[in-house]
Design a protein that fits this description.
Elements: H1 2-13, H2 18-25, H3 29-42, H4 63-75, H5 92-96, H6 101-110, H7 116-138, E1 142-143, E2 146-147, H8 150-159
Antiparallel strand pairs: 1-2
Helix pairs in contact: 1-2, 1-3, 2-3
Length: about 160
């Protein structure tokens, strides 16, 4: 924050060119002009770090549609995301914006309406992957305790380091 303020104050004095100031501070000219623009429009608050998160998500699903998917699942608990359809009493806009099956599955998973067996299968897969990784690391050939890569394995065999 202090360096940004110092940069802006020097830039406003117009004693040095923008390119020279940017080189001195180790920033690009584009960043220099952006700092100056933020300072002139917002004051000292403009020099604080800004969030880089997008302010608008054009493909986001509306909360009303998500709620409608959850209501449909509550009405038909044995149906999966592929079979779920909007309820008869839903509004026409919700029926028009009804998401595809994969998105319905994501909505249900996020709202903890995923079936219990699916959670158990996912946990088993994660456990198996962790176990395989641990076993693979324990059986890797080593020279004096240092693991050997695949490329170095042939060279170590040729030198007689590994028998």
């Amino acid at each position: 924050m202090e360096h940004r303020l110092e940069f802006v104050l020097l830039a406003l004095k117009h004693e040095h060119s923008m390119a020279e100031l940017c080189r001195q501070f180790g920033i690009s000219r584009q960043t220099g002009y952006e700092l100056l623009a933020h300072y002139t429009t917002e004051g000292l608050d403009g020099l604080k770090p800004h969030s880089r998160a997008p302010r608008h998500h054009p493909n986001a699903i509306d909360e009303q549609v998500c709620a409608a998917v959850i209501r449909a699942k509550a009405r038909h608990p044995s149906w999966g995301p592929k079979k779920l359809q909007p309820l008869a009493d839903e509004s026409e806009t919700i029926k028009q914006r009804w998401p595809v099956a994969s998105t319905r599955g994501t909505i249900l998973a996020r709202s903890w309406h995923a079936p219990a067996w699916w959670c158990r299968v996912a946990e088993r897969v994660r456990t198996c992957r962790r176990e395989r990784s641990r076993l693979a690391q324990s059986v890797r050939p080593t020279t004096r305790g240092v693991p050997i890569s695949r490329a170095g394995f042939g060279q170590a065999m040729a030198r007689g380091v590994i028998h």
